[in-house]
Amino acid sequence: PSAMREVMVQKPNVRWEDVGGLDDAQERLREGVELPLKNPDAFRRLGIRPAKGFLLYGPPGTGKTLLAKAVAREAEANFIATKSSDLLSKWYGESEQQIARLFARARQVAPTVIFIDELDSLVPARGGGMGEPQVTERVVNTILAEMDGLEELQSVVVIGATNRPNLIDPALLRPGRLDELIYVPVPNEVGRRRILDIHTARMPLADDVDLDSIARRTDRFTGADLEDLVRRAGLFALRQGIDTPNVNARHFEQALEDTRPSVTPEIER
Ligand code: ATP
C-alpha cells in the first residue's frame, strides 16, 4: 500500500493585510521572496543571488503558515504545502520519490513557494522527532540535494516552519539552504489589536465592544488564540438567540472566560 501523495498546487488568497503584528517578518519575506520572484531580471542584472530557503520559527499558531501563503500570493507565485510527516515513508525509496515529485512539480509551475511545516520532526526519534533514523536522514539528504540543485533565480523558494528550531538538523541551515532565519513571535498589544481587527472585519460588533481593551487583556494570546476568541464570542451571540443582531461586549466577556493563551511563558522565547 503506497502512501504516495499527490502534489497539490494552490493559489492562496491571503494578502499581507490579513496578517497582523508581524511587520518585521513580513518585511524580510517581501525583500527575500517577493522582490526576487517578481523581478528576477533586476537581480540578474545586478548580480545578486536571492536566498533559496527560509526558516520561520516561533510558537504554534503565530501565523507561520499564514505568512508563507501571503508571500506566495503577493509574489503571484504558486504555493505547495507539505509537512515532514507526509514525506516520511517507511517504504524504501518512497520518501525520496515523493520529495523528487514535489520539487519537479514546483519547477514545472514556477514561480513557486514550497512550504514545509513541522521541520523539527525530521530528526531521528531519539531526538524527539517521529521518524526512524535512517528514514529521516535520507529525507533530509534528499531535500538538501534538491535544494542544492535549485539554480539561483530558478524561481522556486523553500520556506520551512518549526516550533522548535533547536531540533532542526544543522545541515538544513547551512548557506544556500534554509539559511534565512525569521522569528515569528507571539504578538504584542499593538499586534493583537491589529489581529482582532482582521478577525472581526466581517462581524457586526455592538458599540460597547472595546477591541483596545480586549487587546490589552489578552497577553500571550497568539493569532490563532485570538481568532478562536472572536469565533467563540460569535457563538455566544448566536446562543443568545438565532436572530441576535450583533456581537456585544458581554459575548466577548464570556468568550474571554473560556479562552486561555496557548503559549505558556516556558515555551515563549
Ligand atoms: P503551527 O506552528 O501550529 O503550524 P502557524 O504558526 O503556522 O502554526 P497559522 O496556521 O498560520 O499558525 O495560524 C492559524 C490561524 O490563526 C491562521 O489561519 C489565522 O487565522 C490565525 N492567525 C495566526 N497568526 C495570525 C496573525 N499574525 N494575523 C492574523 N491571523 C493569524
Automatic annotation (TrEMBL):
Species of the source: Edaphosphingomonas laterariae
Domain of life: Bacteria
Name of the protein this chain belongs to: Transitional endoplasmic reticulum ATPase
Domain AAA+ ATPase as annotated: residue spans: 50-188
Similarity-based family: Belongs to the AAA ATPase family. CDC48 subfamily.
